[in-house]
Amino acid sequence: MSDLTATAPGRAAPRMAGRVKAAIILFILFALMPPLASALDDPFYVLIGTRILAYAIAALALDLILGYGAMVSFGHAAYLGFGSYAVAILSSYGINDLGLQLLFGITLSAVFALITGAISLRTQGVYFIMITLAFGQMAFFFFISLSAYGGDDGYGLSERSTLMGIDILQSDFGLYYVTLALLIAMFVLCHRIVMSRFGRVLTGIRENPTRMEAIGYSPFRYQLTAFIISGCITSVAGVLLANQAQFVSPAFMSWHRSGELIVMVVLGGVGTLTGPIGGAVAALLLEEWLGALSEHWRLWFGIFLVLMVLFSPRGITGVLERMGIVRTRQ
Fold first, then answer.
1. Which pLDDT score, from 0 to 100, does residue 224 have?
2. 3 within some domain
3. What is the residue-wise DSSP string for 25-69?
4. 84: domain CATH number?
5. Is residue 4 part of a domain?
6. Which of helix, strand or coil describes residue 162?
């Protein structure tokens, strides 16, 4: 095992460097979006851009466990709900600081992920998918029952959060760049996790859990830790989505939303980190464009997704690899 851990970083370096370069290009393009929107005099691009960035954080978090831990969570949108309702609950008590709301949302998500993950990881395969779906639906119906926060109708926020007492998030441009900064921070965190010994062990468990257990590693502990980290990162996206919409609703945490997150990861490329970010961009832009063309846009989106899976199993990342634009493989 010592030989494996010593040589794995060297073998992985070329493809990880390719992913980092691709991520840097994406972040630069994201940073240019608000000036472009100003030049076109169309603030809609900033609003949809903020939504894309927030979902990119959630897709990135899901890829950490799906792509590197082979854990297909179909209830991951629950953590979006915990993040969004953290904003609503604290705001109702006059606490509007973004840092405190993030801390509260992350804490709720960590506790929920610890409890549900410890139970879910006793199962495998389709049973893991179904039990995470069940826990996600339990959270969904719990927040529907909270009449103090609008129940099924949702809860409107009177204002956006503040950042260390500064109303920077009141501006759409300010919220956009704060969301972009958090996306970059979450990408760096996930990249460091994947490149660390923890990440290599997690990948080894994905490939052969029996062998990893035989040489002294506990798959359950590593997978549970990754599951908790992923849930906490997803809650950050929920806090940002609540601020972007100035509205929270149990719809944030429905099983449909969990399915959309999986689609973003698959569309961008599973186990690539940068792929899910591109997948979030592609999925939400296709939703907007196809929705403007036809009320049956989901049919056309489904056809596109089927073709992508059939002809490029690695998603958009695979297409860019074949074109020689990016390099994520050795």
1. 96
2. no
3. HHHHHHHHHHHHHHHHT-THHHHHHHHHHHHHHHHHHHHHHHHHH
4. 1.10.3470
5. no
6. strand
Residue partners of 23: CB distance under 8 A and separation at least 6: 187, 191, 273, 274, 277
On whether residue 131 sits in a domain, the answer given is yes
Least confident of 8-17, 139-148, 184-193, 262-271: 8-17
Q: How far apart are CA 252 and CA 77, in angstroms?
A: 7
Q: What was the pLDDT predicted at 315?
A: 84
Q: How far is CA 50 from CA 228, 242, 285, in A?
A: 25, 11, 12
Answer whether residue 14 shows pLDDT above 70: no
pTM of the model: 0.91
> What CA–CA distances, in Å, run from 233 to 10, 82, 256, 286?
28, 11, 19, 25
Lookup result for tokens 């449909």: 256
Q: What whole-number distance in Å separates Cα of residue 100 and Cα of residue 114?
A: 21
Q: Is residue 97 domain-resident?
A: yes
Dihedral sign of CA atoms 70, 74, 80, 82 in order: negative
C-alpha separations of 304 from 49, 78, 110, 168, 287 in Å: 22, 27, 35, 39, 12
Q: Which residues contact 143 (CB under 8 A, 6 or more apart)?
A: 81, 85, 149, 250, 253
Residue 214 and residue 194 in contact, taking contact as beta carbons nearer than 8 Å: no
Q: Which domain holds residue 274?
A: 9-322
Q: Secondary structure of the chain: what % helix, strand, coil (to 5)?
A: 80, 0, 20
- The one-character DSSP state at 273 is S
Name residue 218's amino acid.
S
CA–CA gap between residue 70 and residue 191 (Å, rounded):
17
Strand locations in the chain, DSSP E? 155-156, 247-248
Kindly state the tokens that stand for 5. 């851990």
- Cα separation of 321 and 310, whole Å? 16
At 239 the pLDDT is 95
Could you give the number of structural domains in the chain? Answer: 1
Burial 84-113 (b: 16+ CB within 10 A, else e): bbbbbbbbeeeebebeebbebbbebbbebb
The pLDDT, as a whole number, for residue 326 is: 61
